[in-house]
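Hi all, a correction to my earlier message: I attached the wrong file for Sterol-4-alpha-carboxylate 3-dehydrogenase, decarboxylating. Here's the right sequence:
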Amino acid sequence: MATRVRPSNKRCAVIGGSGFLGRHLVETLVDRGYSVSVFDIRQSYELPGLTFHLGDLCDEQALLPALKNASLVFHCASPAPASDDRELFERVNIQGTRTVIQACLEAGVQKLVLTSSASVVFEGKDIKNGQEDLPYAGKPIDYYTETKIEQEKLVLQACDREKDFLTVAIRPHGIFGPRDPQLVPILVDTARRGKMKFIIGDGTNLVDFTFVENVVHGHILAAENLRPNSPICGKPYHITNDEPVRFWDFMSEVLVALGYAAPRFHLPYILVYGLALLLWLLSMILRPVLSFKPTFTPMRVALAGTHHYYSCDRAKQDLGYKPVVSLKEGIQRTVQSYPHLRKGA
Ligand SMILES: NC(=O)C1=CN([C@@H]2O[C@H](COP(=O)(O)OP(=O)(O)OC[C@H]3O[C@@H](n4cnc5c(N)ncnc54)[C@H](OP(=O)(O)O)[C@@H]3O)[C@@H](O)[C@H]2O)C=CC1
Ligand SMILES: CC(C)CCC[C@@H](C)[C@H]1CC[C@H]2C3=C(CC[C@]12C)[C@@]1(C)CCC(=O)C[C@@H]1CC3
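and the right structure:
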């Protein structure tokens, strides 16, 4: 019988390694002495010693060379939530994740760490200090969330000690930091268009925003603790900054630091949510003839007007997780990294 060559446990692949989180993860892994191969649909940078494999993760033949000799795979690729394209989410997040699992098994990969999302339990209603045992959202608020739920289930169910294939899911929330293409750029764009004057609801809702380096730290801890006898196999873990903050205080701090006025006037949550729903329906109906993307989607309004913060006690206990960068420092470093987004720049 042929014996399988065990790949070095410092050899890993990052699927989605050109993206915001993926690139931060790759840079940290390289710093820590991992040999990394990146798989992505695009190449956004170069780094000495890094191998890039370009392709669609739904294509197993394209994936296999990137996973060759890797004992560990991080899967952090997904279409952007803003695309709101049902067919694309289903193809990439569900079918594509099946392909990733299949390719890992064929390539002899032993550990798969998925970037899931804390939003898999969010239905648009308040979540205060949510634990991992909350049920998945029965009525997910958008296609992104719907397919992230299926993706997480697929990865966790694939965990199989007999097959020497271990999986774990990291559920970050509201990732921000240098090079983030979503949170700060959308916020500034909204402010530049004069639409950032209003606070949705009473402005006291607490949420988690997580500095990207803490998310990276959580991923690496999960990978390094994923062993056949460890309690983390097949489980999801919240990774946050562990410092819930008022949504509107966080937004105001970032806006003011970049030279924009903080929102001041209050609008009733239910009114804005209803309008966002109406706009979203209109955009769906008119899609064949007119394409427009509303700034205030039902998902964004729900995120802006409700409590959604999560406990990371399980990660502290099982992974020894502790945020490495505070919210205050994370905001400072993020704002400094966006000189081109400053007012007047
Ligand atoms: N940002 C956040 O606040 C949160 C993110 N997450 C999760 O974290 C992960 C990373 O998110 P983030 O870094 O923000 O996202 P990015 O969009 O920055 O990164 C995702 C990367 O995956 C690539 N990609 C998309 N589709 C495919 C495909 N079919 N084959 C290969 N590569 C593909 C993207 O390419 P392209 O850009 O061309 O599409 C991009 O380079 C995602 O799984 C997301 O769901 C979870 C919670 C919060
Ligand atoms: C227009 C304003 C009212 C809000 C602007 C900020 C938003 C763009 C962001 C605030 C919370 C963010 C967030 C995500 C995307 C960007 C925000 C909506 C996610 C949906 C990204 C993907 C996830 O898995 C969950 C995130 C939750 C928080």
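Sorry for the mix-up. Residues 1-6 have pLDDT under 50 and may be disordered.
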